[in-house]
Amino acid sequence: MEEYLPQVETLVVGPLAVCCYVVYDPESREGVVIDPGGDPEKILSRVAELGLKIKWILGTHGHADHVSAAGDLRRSLSAPYALHRADEDFFTRGEGASIFLSWGFPPNPPADETFEEGASFSFGRFSLSVIHTPGHSPGSVCFYDGGKLLFTGDTLFVGAVGRGDLPGGDYFQMMRSIREKLLVLPEETVVLPGHDYGSRPTSTIGREKRENPFIQEFL
Q1: DSSP 3-state of 1
Q2: Residue 8: what are its φ and ψ, rounded to 5°?
Q3: 102-117 residue pLDDT tens
Q4: How far is the C-alpha of 18 from the C-alpha of 79, rounded, in Å?
């Protein structure tokens, strides 16, 4: 029997070239947008072309380059924007907001809902569950469909890992998150990162275990 999976569209958006993912059920046309880091008109145009009803706008973390278009999308799509509670506190209302303002980003839009480890977001016949992977930021998360797809934000890249030196970051905590929460997933799990920094746009957990030099050093 053919495996039934969500469809994934990748849009590179914003000044720091973030991978924004539009993930949807091809039958119901319900979907979610992950990491709308800029260019809201580009995201909205593709959503309209695909004929989608967006149920959620999700951030893997609260850095402005990943969520700055969430407010525009929320208004146009009438969909709630959700972020981990720790990053909403730190980057929207707390001390972490200033670094991105100094880089020229607008203030983060406030989240409609916050979530923690284990929350899930449904669209059509699919859902994405939250794996809290702190380290790149206090509330960094990955979204996992429970079987095949893992949206890793800036925690795990192809052949690399995220920074731990920004406000709220902790490199060693991030590496523990990767080891204890991501490397335990099935090796065929597809890694869809927040930036296309590697030799290919996506990878797998098994390939990263074998080839990622940061993981090899830490294990």
Answers
A1: coil
A2: -130, 125
A3: 888 989 999 999 999 9
A4: 21
Say which amino acid occupies 87. D
Name the residue type at position 1: M
| Tokens linked to 136 | 């790149």
- Separation in Å, CA 113 to CA 1, 83, 191: 38, 7, 26
What is the percentage of the chain residues whose pLDDT exceeds 70?
Answer: 99
Q: Tens digits of per-residue pLDDT, 66-94?
A: 999 999 999 999 999 999 999 999 998 77
Per-residue pLDDT tens over the stretch 133-142: 999 999 999 9
Q: Number of helices and strands (H, E) in the chain?
A: 8, 14
Q: Report the first-to-last Cα separation within the chain, whole angstroms.
A: 37
For residue 77, the number of C-alpha atoms closer than 13 Å in the C-beta half-sphere is: 29
- Which one-letter amino acid corresponds to residue 202? T
Report the C-alpha gap between 78 and 180 in whole angstroms.
Answer: 36
Domains observed in the chain: 7-218 (3.60.15.10)
Can you tell me the distance from the alpha carbon of 25 to that of 37, in angstroms, rounded to the nearest whole number? Answer: 22
Measured distance CA(168)–CA(139) in Å, rounded? 9
- The mean pLDDT of the chain is 95
Token pair recorded at residue 22? 């539009």
